[in-house]
From TrEMBL:
<dbReference type="InterPro" id="IPR035963">
    <property type="entry name" value="FERM_2"/>
</dbReference>
<feature type="domain" description="PH">
    <location>
        <begin position="378"/>
        <end position="474"/>
    </location>
</feature>
<keyword id="KW-0965">Cell junction</keyword>
<dbReference type="InterPro" id="IPR019747">
    <property type="entry name" value="FERM_CS"/>
</dbReference>
<dbReference type="GO" id="GO:0007229">
    <property type="term" value="P:integrin-mediated signaling pathway"/>
</dbReference>
<dbReference type="InterPro" id="IPR037837">
    <property type="entry name" value="PH_Kindlin/fermitin"/>
</dbReference>
<dbReference type="GO" id="GO:0042995">
    <property type="term" value="C:cell projection"/>
</dbReference>
<dbReference type="InterPro" id="IPR019749">
    <property type="entry name" value="Band_41_domain"/>
</dbReference>
<keyword id="KW-0966">Cell projection</keyword>
<comment type="similarity">
    <text>Belongs to the kindlin family.</text>
</comment>
<dbReference type="GO" id="GO:0005925">
    <property type="term" value="C:focal adhesion"/>
</dbReference>
<dbReference type="GO" id="GO:0007160">
    <property type="term" value="P:cell-matrix adhesion"/>
</dbReference>
<dbReference type="GO" id="GO:0005178">
    <property type="term" value="F:integrin binding"/>
</dbReference>
<dbReference type="Pfam" id="PF00373">
    <property type="entry name" value="FERM_M"/>
</dbReference>
<protein>
    <submittedName>
        <fullName>FERM1 protein</fullName>
    </submittedName>
</protein>
<dbReference type="Pfam" id="PF18124">
    <property type="entry name" value="Kindlin_2_N"/>
</dbReference>
<dbReference type="InterPro" id="IPR019748">
    <property type="entry name" value="FERM_central"/>
</dbReference>
Amino acid sequence: MSSSSDYGSHTWGLLLTVDQQRENVQKEFLLQVTGDLHIGGLMLKLVEKMNISQDWSDYAFWWEQKKCWLLKTHWTLDKCGVQADAKLLFTPQHKMLRLRLPNMKTVRLKVSFSTMVFRAVSDICKILNIRRSEELSLLKQSGDTLKKKKKKDKNSKEPVTEDILNLCDSPVSSGLAANPGLYSKTMTPIYDPVSGSPASSTITWFSDSPLTEQNCNVLALSYPNCSPEMLAEMYQPRTLADKAKLNAGWLDSSRSLMEQGILEDDQLLLRFKYYTFFDLNPKYDAVRINQLYEQARWAILLEEIDCTEEEMLIFAAIQAYHVSKLSLSSEAQDSTCESEVDEVEAALSNLEVTLEGGSTSNILEDITDIPKLADNLRLVRPKKLSLKAIKSYWFIFRDTSISYFKNKESAQGEPIEKLNLKGCEVVPDVNVAAKKFGIKLLIPVADGMNEVYLRCDNEDQYARWMAACVLASKGRTMADSSYQPEVQKILSFLQMKNMSSQATSDPESVDMKPECFVSLRYTKKYKSKQLTARILEAHQNISQMSLVEAKLRFIQAWQSLPEFGLSYYIVRFKGSKKDDVLGVSYNRLIRIDMATGDPITTWRFSNMKQWNVNWEIRQVAIEFDQNVSIAFTCLSADCKIIHEYIGGYIFLSTRSKDQNETLDEELFHKLTGGQE
């Protein structure tokens, strides 16, 4: 009989492959090992066997059969489960990756293939100077979205050469901590707030960064649009099922690139995944704002999000005359110090007024005043078997509720009905040209949604009531400091719509291609001169904006669209015999009829008690207040993607400016990781 010591000393052969770039160098090595040898010792034996002098610090073992990294160097082979049949590849952890940015530019840089995607995206964003990396992630384009492009490529005779920005000299490539690039952690302004171009002194200070001034301009400034022919070649979703394909390829943030089948020099899309853009600041976020603007612009051009004709013309006006022209003008790229001086003077004058107590009386008035709205509005209730019933009532808006009465005189008594707007959906129903100012309210009830329409008489009335409804849906009253800014934002948007609904007489003198700034639907509907005229009118109202203001206005208009922030997935609800579409937003889930596109039910995250996933049958189960529970399986993507979306949005809702921009990565993985 053999003793335990004899058994423990038994050696066996393990074949190791080295990922070596040099030619005429041995790539495979057979080492005699024991089960109690730790991973670090195995690395040492292999390096000694190779006898090649180079830096091996970035190398680690990749287990091909198990699709996992062996990164815990103190673990033994027995603890890892490595036996003689294991195929281990000794390979660098940082590899080249091509990233397609929202502005359709491709950058090539070294990324960690061994860390979780969440950490890898954080390192990428530091190189690219994009704050709030938690809002972005990596997306693998699905085969369906590439089919149309491949067909077009076959028909084209000339080879397509892609312009790639090479950032392979970044510090991440050596496995070191990412250099902050042009992002100053002291929050010192590093861009001209008007032009968005990097300050020359900053470039000098961070001269070791791969982001030179020229490269940074490529990421922070917008360039001329593609031609209508190129637009026609790109994938454009036509149905909700098509839109669901766009969101099927999000990578798992809790696993590494290598574990998800991503190979060296593959191409992925870097996109804003979560539509909650925290602390957008023109001083520090030139690249972030531009990439966000570009993602919004392409979503509108490719009709990934629906908008009306008036809204499309507003978007076209901002693109055509502000972003494209200002980006190309020399004025936009001149760094000026005057704006910074003005800001300092303004801050000093504000401080002086505050110290003198000039606005004390106004503050006291605001505290004692209970804000409310009272107006004659028309109430519209859709009826299934008859025409819509429209009737005028006296409405009072107080706190987060709307009460309506037969007339003004009866307002002292009991209301006909009181509508609590907390947690409801608020959708604009506006046609400026037709003088239609409506507010659509979808109020959640036990068996679905209670649909109510309010009709206002004019723009001012609509702006006041719409702003109050939007805040009430979030649980805030008109006493909130954001109420007046919300009113002004709605009024300015209505003003732009009003300008876009008019026509001009002589667009001949303007040199532009309007087809580059609207989706294909409108290029087929209108002639070039007609589009030019209408875009010109919409532009009159925004001609005095700076470059960054124009981009921010574009982003705000995008956020005002009813479908903004919805990511679609095809699901089958438990107990249902047909497929539905599930829309995932920053604060709610929406069940949508796939055939008609109409919302069926909305569930708010604020009412959610818990959610979990049955990984065996890939089913997501969610419990809400009032004993409401749902369960569904995802058909268009892995259920882990929806699970991560829900947990990710809840994680982002915990952010605050007091955190000094440090993230609780452990909490993110706890909310999004799941236990498979």
